[in-house]
Amino acid sequence: MKINLEYWRQAGPKAEGHFETHTIQNVADDASFLEMLDQLNEELFAEGKEPVAFDSDCREGICGQCGLVINGDPHGPLVTTTCQLHMRTFKDGDTITIEPWRSTAFPVLRDLVVDRTALDRIVQAGGYISVNTGAAPDAHAVPVRKEHADKSFEAAACIGCGACVAACPNGSAMLFTSAKVVHLGILPQGQPERKERVVNMLSQHDAEGFGGCTNTGACASACPKQVPLEFISMLNRDLIRAL
């Protein structure tokens, strides 16, 4: 099928950005969105033009590196990662607009690539757990209630892609931060630093320039791993106990 593309071009964080257009013929409907971008770059290279920079790694929906705003939606019209979005989702002759994540905390490095290390710094602010569980058999001997284990696993599913930030009208990373807080906060190993962890991570969240949460729910709706909105409430309860 034929696809008309409007994609963002930006030479660097301080450069002026603009849209460029290109039409690709013969796009396979079973191609992934990133494979379509590979095809775009092959055609641009053949024309003597600079390829479009975009991020990707595993291309299996695990690493979270491939985030793009596609027709106004983080990761596109389906609730999945960009690499798992296939061209059969679109129709012959469609025009697709591709932009990077839009957030003060995610400066554009080049074209569709943004710097998301702010999320790494939030995790780093949480620090380590001080509980020594020993080897794997010893760790498995620590009793954990099933509902707590299930919730922790649900939180650990967050891949840090940043779609929650891109979807939020305030540019908040509270869903991401809450997932990282809840992941350890409801496990026995996470209890010693539980109060300190939530305060430090939220302080870093605000220092990075992310906006405040107003519970619109846009973050959870866009999350490709379906991290639930209730985690933000759980984070807020931990914060109240810590202050």
UniProtKB/TrEMBL annotation:
GO MF annotations, alphabetized: succinate dehydrogenase (quinone) activity
InterPro entries listed in its UniProt record: 2Fe-2S_ferredoxin-like_sf, 2Fe2S_fd_BS, 4Fe4S_Fe-S-bd, 4Fe4S_Fe_S_CS, Beta-grasp_dom_sf, Helical_ferredxn, SDH/FRD_Iron-Sulfur, Succ_DH/fum_Rdtase_N
Record-linked PROSITE patterns: 2FE2S_FER_1 (PS00197), 4FE4S_FER_1 (PS00198), 4FE4S_FER_2 (PS51379)
Listed SUPFAM superfamilies: 2Fe-2S ferredoxin-like, alpha-helical ferredoxin
Top-level division of the source organism's lineage: Bacteria
Cofactors required: [2Fe-2S] cluster; [3Fe-4S] cluster
Class of this enzyme: oxidoreductase
Signal peptide location: none
Gene3D superfamilies according to UniProt: 3.10.20.30, Alpha-helical ferredoxin
Keyword Transport: no
Entry's EC annotation: 1.3.5.1
Keywords from the named record: Iron, Iron-sulfur, Metal-binding, Oxidoreductase
Domain 4Fe-4S ferredoxin-type: 149-179
Sequence similarity: Belongs to the succinate dehydrogenase/fumarate reductase iron-sulfur protein family.
Identification of the protein by name: Succinate dehydrogenase / fumarate reductase iron-sulfur subunit
Naturally occurring in which organism (per UniProt): Arcanobacterium hippocoleae
